């Protein structure tokens, strides 16, 4: 039977990179990059090739192999695996870069900050203290070549080839035989007399002083150069001088050196070192200490190195959330660190945590997630949004905390493009209908209107036709002035989604009613919108062939591109009213704020900042709008205005009542004041609808149902009877003042004359008959509408007010 020897190098679970070696500490070892065959994770591999006649070096390499395998410390190079054969030695460690190469690369990129250097030196001194004080070992090789840096910027102590016991076990220090290393030996060793009395750490502390000099000034040319500190920071110079003193007895213990440098004003007394020390002991810290640390961490992250944030801070943040119950305080630093990640890393590390956070019942976490959604929404795919995030987000619409309701509305601007048909056109519209009609906070009603205008292009054609006109018309009757402005701007921003028939019969009547609004800002926007819509209708009237082209978006499928016109309109409401809401909540924590008294035009707190941005956000002239043709289809005109309220939205209100009954109510006792009167708005009561505002006295003049016109007094001339273009005697006065004056009996019409009133004789009788017929039709129409309303009220209880149509 034949036995075949297996090659241990080939079976080794790690392989060397084909890249050339990076070098390593002076001596027998050569440093290679490598990777683990099973996972592909990067590692560093120190390789020593056994050569004949080099038994002394081979023994040194084997001793280093053994030391590295048995020593475990966060600041000592981490051993992963090893291979020892007759021909070679392989030592696998965490992926690292030699300090000299690292400093050179960072110098080309702008250099290291003192914060990074202070923490790196802190780690090396701490590792040296561990060896000397805890293990009674002398490193005997502290220099630039014995220090390595991992991907997080952490400094690791290696180069354990010449280590020996401080207690004398195993003989004295091994002979190096490498001139590059012997220049770091202290002067008392070069003397050879042994007269100097020294501590066990004296030689290593001298070498530490040489390392500090090289870190700040470059390679050490000779020992005499240590007398000049060079670029060493002033706060470190006194402690450095102690290290390179000629008397070995006065060189401090590594632990005392750290203590001196951490004193107030010391080189290692800074926020970066404190943060790292806390992270090292975070598992044993109290919850209150962790909360305070994470709250203050985000302020410091901007000054910390990017690699440190990605590989050192981020894992601790994720661990704190998963196992430490850190809660919402980790969100701000988590998303700030996330900016340093690429898309793939973000998807792997941040998104799973974010998805899990949305299922939390912690209000603070929910509101912070909503506030910072813009930072991670681009990394969420549509299935994740619809199945794992949106079902939790919609609970915010029913929350008793106004701030959460408002942030939930704002978040829909980001979530809408990723929502499916059912969530966007059915579920979301339920909540928007309820918020716009029943929420006691004016800014939230305003933001709901603004959000609906911005996401209107994502709705399907049937939902747009059913919802937009009714919703914006309802907003124009809101007692909160910015909500009325938002309703007008909503019509303007979605102008391409309406047919010419809707523009003429549904939108313009609503806008015309706002021309007598008590607030001038509302009137101004209404006039602008009216002029724009009229310009469109007039243009289409001049060229009817444009109808198909200008109405192509009316029945088109949902498209993100159609929302471009709404990208900036009324942005002041979403971004600016939030400050108003928070101020109102803080000022009245248990009651909703009173609405502004519109006849006196007071300015609510927080609104002055809105005025400058209102005008530019809505200064859309008719020249920027497409021309549309008036449609003659009026079959749907009688019922479409009320569809927003007539839709069967399911058991939303019952669901809202059950949720509100379980949660702490932040906003009980809300009031809305209009014209000196106060009306209590109860979000839990179905009766508290827009109809309660309609009944208040200050709205009587502006929003009454128009009554049928009375027949003109005897002698009143119709418009067709008056001379609009001819010349009048100068003593006749203002023609409008004489509209009710009776024509003089002696005035005779000449059949053959084209004089002042020639057209009256031809058309007066026919037009009077048409006017009487129109008046009768309007009365019949009014009676039919009253009968329908009575039937609905009897069947459904108190009626919700939709868009009121002008007869």
From TrEMBL:
One of its GO terms (molecular function) is ATP binding. Residues 18-28 have a biased composition (Pro residues). The keyword Transport applies. Residues 14-314 form the Protein kinase domain. One of its GO terms (cellular component) is cis-Golgi network. It is found in: Cytoplasm, Cytoskeleton, Microtubule organizing center, Centrosome; Endoplasmic reticulum-Golgi intermediate compartment; Golgi apparatus, cis-Golgi network. Residues 764-774, 781-794 have a biased composition (Basic and acidic residues). Gene3D superfamilies: Leucine-rich Repeat Variant, Phosphorylase Kinase, domain 1, Transferase(Phosphotransferase) domain 1. Residues 616-625, 660-682 have a biased composition (Polar residues). Keywords: Coiled coil, Cytoplasm, Cytoskeleton, ER-Golgi transport, Golgi apparatus, Phosphoprotein, Repeat, Transport. The keyword Cytoplasm applies. This is N-terminal kinase-like protein. It comes from Canis lupus dingo (dingo).
């Amino acid at each position: 039977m034949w036995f075949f020897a297996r090659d241990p190098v080939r079976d080794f679970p790690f392989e060397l990179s084909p890249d050339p070696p990076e070098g390593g500490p002076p001596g027998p070892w050569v440093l290679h990059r490598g990777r683990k065959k099973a996972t592909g994770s990067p590692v560093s591999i120190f390789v020593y090739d056994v050569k004949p006649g080099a038994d002394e070096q081979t023994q040194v390499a084997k001793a280093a192999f053994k030391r590295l395998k048995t020593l475990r410390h966060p600041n000592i190079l981490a051993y992963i695996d090893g291979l020892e054969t007759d021909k070679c030695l392989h030592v696998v460690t965490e992926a690292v870069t030699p300090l000299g190469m690292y400093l050179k690369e960072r110098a080309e990129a702008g250099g290291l900050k003192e914060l990074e250097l202070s923490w790196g030196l802190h780690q090396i001194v701490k590792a040296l203290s561990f060896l000397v004080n805890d293990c009674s070992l002398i490193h005997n090789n502290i220099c630039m070549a014995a220090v390595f840096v991992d991907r997080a910027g952490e400094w690791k102590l290696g180069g354990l080839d010449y280590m020996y016991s401080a207690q004398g076990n195993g003989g004295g220090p091994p002979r190096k035989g490498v001139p590059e290393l012997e220049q770091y030996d202290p002067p008392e060793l070069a003397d050879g007399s042994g007269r100097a009395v020294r501590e066990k750490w004296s030689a290593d502390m001298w070498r530490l002083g040489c390392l500090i000099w090289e870190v700040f000034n470059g390679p050490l040319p000779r020992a005499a150069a240590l007398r000049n500190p060079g670029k060493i920071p002033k706060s470190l110079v006194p402690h450095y001088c102690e290290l390179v003193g000629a008397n070995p007895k006065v060189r401090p213990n590594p632990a005392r050196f750290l203590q001196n440098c951490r004193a107030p004003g010391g080189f290692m007394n800074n926020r970066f070192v404190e943060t790292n020390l806390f992270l090292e002991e975070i598992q044993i810290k109290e919850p209150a200490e962790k909360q305070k640390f994470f709250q203050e961490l985000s302020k410091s992250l901007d000054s910390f190195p990017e690699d440190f944030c990605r590989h050192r801070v981020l894992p601790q943040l994720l661990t704190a959330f998963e196992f430490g119950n850190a809660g919402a305080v980790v969100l701000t630093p988590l998303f700030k660190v996330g900016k340093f990640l690429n898309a793939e890393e973000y998807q792997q590390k941040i998104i799973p945590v974010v998805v899990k956070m949305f299922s939390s019942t912690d209000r603070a976490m929910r509101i912070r997630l909503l506030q910072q959604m813009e930072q991670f929404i681009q990394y969420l795919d549509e299935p994740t949004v619809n199945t794992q995030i949106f079902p939790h987000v919609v609970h915010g619409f029913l929350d008793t905390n106004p701030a959460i309701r408002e942030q939930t509305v704002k978040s829909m601007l980001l979530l809408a493009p990723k929502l499916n048909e059912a969530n966007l056109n059915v579920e979301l519209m339920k909540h928007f209908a309820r918020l716009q009609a029943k929420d006691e906070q004016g800014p939230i009603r305003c933001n709901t209107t603004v959000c609906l205008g911005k996401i209107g292009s994502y709705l399907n054609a049937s939902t747009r036709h059913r919802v937009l006109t009714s919703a914006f018309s309802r907003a124009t009757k809101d007692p909160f002035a910015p909500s009325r402005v938002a309703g007008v701007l909503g019509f303007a921003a979605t102008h391409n989604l309406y047919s010419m028939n809707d523009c003429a019969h549904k939108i313009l009547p609503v806008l015309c009613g706002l021309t007598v609004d008590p607030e001038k800002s509302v009137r101004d926007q209404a006039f602008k919108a009216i002029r724009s819509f009229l310009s469109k209708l007039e243009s289409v009237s001049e060229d009817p062939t444009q109808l198909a082209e200008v109405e192509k978006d009316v029945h088109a499928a949902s498209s993100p591109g159609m929302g471009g016109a709404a990208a900036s309109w009324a942005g002041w409401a979403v971004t600016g009213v939030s400050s108003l809401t928070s101020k109102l909540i803080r000022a009245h924590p248990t009651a909703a704020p009173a609405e502004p008294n519109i006849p006196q035009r007071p300015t609510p707190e927080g609104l002055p900042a809105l005025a400058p941005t209102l005008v530019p956000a809505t200064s859309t002239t008719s020249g920027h709008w497409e021309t549309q043709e008036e449609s003659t289809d009026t079959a749907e005109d009688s019922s479409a205005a009320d569809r927003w309220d007539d839709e069967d939205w399911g058991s939303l209100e019952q669901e809202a009542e059950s949720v509100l009954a379980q949660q702490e109510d932040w906003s009980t006792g809300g009031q809305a004041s209009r014209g000196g009167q106060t009306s209590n708005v109860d979000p839990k009561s179905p009766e508290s609808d827009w109809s309660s505002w309609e009944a208040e006295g200050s709205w009587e003049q502006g929003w009454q149902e128009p009554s049928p016109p009375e027949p003109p007094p005897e002698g009143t001339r119709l418009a067709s009877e008056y001379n609009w273009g001819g010349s009048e005697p100068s003593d006749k006065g203002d023609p409008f003042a004489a509209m009710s004056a009776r024509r003089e009996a002696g005035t005779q019409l000449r059949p053959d004359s084209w004089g002042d009133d020639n057209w009256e004789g031809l058309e007066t009788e026919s037009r009077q008959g048409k006017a009487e017929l129109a008046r009768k039709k309007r009365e019949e129409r009014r009676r039919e509408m009253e009968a329908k309303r009575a039937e609905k009220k009897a069947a459904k209880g108190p009626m919700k007010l939709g868009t009121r149509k002008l007869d």
